[in-house]
Structures are given as C-alpha cells and as structure tokens.
Design goal:
It contains four helices and nine strands. With 228 residues, the chain is α+β, with helices and mostly antiparallel strands.
Length: 228
C-alpha cells in the first residue's frame, strides 16, 4: 500500500495549511505531549505520559487507509483553523495519530479496517489545554476527549509511512514486549510528527502501546533515578 498521506491533489492544500499552522513555519510542530522517559531496553523506550486532550474523528471502516487518513486530517485541520464555536485558531501539536479500533475502543492500530471497525484520526491539543477551555467543534463528527496518564512503550523509526514499513516496526515492538513479558493494554497506535513533504529520512515516526508495567530491569533504573 502506498503512503497513508500521499501527496495527491487533496493532500497538497492540506499540507500547506498544516505548514502554516505549525509554529514558525517549520515542518514539525514545536510542542508534543508531556512525558518522562523512564528508561530504554534495546530500541524500545518506556515513557510516563501526563494527561492530555485530543480532538478525534472516526471514519467508517470501509474506507481505505489513504482516504480515511486524508478525510480525518481535513476535518481536524478545519477544527483547529477556526471551525469551532469560538472561531479561534488552536496551535497544532505533534504527533498526528491514525489508528483503528472497535467503536467502543479509545485507540487501536493502524491497519486495514475489518469487522465493523472504524479508522480513528486524532490531533493532540496543546499541553495544558482542558476540555472546559477548548472551543467545541462545529463539526459533530469531531469529539474532544481526555486521555488519562499512562505508561507507554514507544518504538521510533524514520522513513516512509507505508503500511509494510509500519507493520514491520509494529512486529518489532510487540516481539520486544512479549519477550519482556509486558502486557499491552491497547493495540499499537501509529504516530507521525512531520508534514508529508518532509523527506522520509528526516521523519520521526513512532509506534505507541499503552502497557501495564515496564520490564524490571528498566523499572529498577527508574527507581534509582528517582532516588537521586
């Protein structure tokens, strides 16, 4: 499958809009969710995230990955660009995440939707933003949600957004968690930190999984760091 956000006729104006929204005109948003690195085991980084708010939209599961990603991105860019009750602009925060999940799930993996599952695309709101302070979307297909504090296993990689590359990295992460006997509390989430016109070798891509604990070797190091 080609890249989820292909540089086609639809994506070009969206990419330009995103570039204008991102702070300083750079190719990456300047803010990311607050988290503390607990430690690292091989290529997997373990993080403690503080709570944050997302703007989320769901795309019917019978859409392709490309079309779902483009449609979700378009809706959310419209929201942060002023299509909200306050008609105000909201800073764009990295990463932009696309996932798949059952209708009752909060987050789930990026892959071809089946069995009545939906595509889920979300933008993370600026750090410190609260549900009470953020303007409500005028588009009823967009919902604001609070994501609670969580412990996450993250695998970072560069390169294209192709499904084949994503799946290969996903398997690496899940194999590492399995070997460490760490239980995943959510299925993987595909996070992208850059605009689509950024060369693939400069891109920051991550696969994130909420977990029940960190491996003992990493946790011990974290406890020692706290003691200092």
């Amino acid at each position: 499958m080609d890249e989820y956000f292909a540089m086609n006729k639809l994506w070009k104006p969206l990419a330009l809009t995103a570039a204008l929204i991102m702070s300083g005109g750079t190719a990456m948003a300047t803010q990311t969710p607050d988290y503390t690195v607990i430690g690292k085991s091989g290529d997997v980084e373990y993080r403690q995230y503080t709570p944050y708010v997302i703007a989320e939209t769901r795309i019917p599961g019978d859409w392709s990955a490309n079309r779902a990603g483009n449609e979700g991105f378009r809706r959310l860019v419209s929201y942060i660009s002023g299509n909200n009750e306050a008609r105000g602009k909201i800073a764009m925060t990295a990463p932009v995440a696309q996932s798949r999940g059952e209708k009752i799930a909060m987050t789930a993996p990026v892959s071809q939707a089946t069995s009545g599952e939906d595509w889920v695309v979300h933008f993370i709101m600026p750090p410190g933003a609260s549900l009470d302070e953020l303007p409500q979307p005028r588009d009823p297909r967009i919902e604001l949600k609070q994501v609670p504090a969580r412990v996450v296993a993250a695998l970072r990689y560069s390169g294209s957004w192709s499904e084949r590359r994503y799946q290969a990295q996903e398997q690496r992460l899940l194999a590492s968690l399995n070997a460490a006997e760490v239980e995943a509390l959510s299925a993987p989430e595909f996070a992208r930190y850059n605009a689509p016109f950024v060369p693939t070798f400069f891109r920051r891509n991550e696969i994130l999984v909420t977990i029940d604990r960190v491996p003992e070797s990493v946790a011990e190091g974290w406890q020692v760091a706290l003691a200092r």
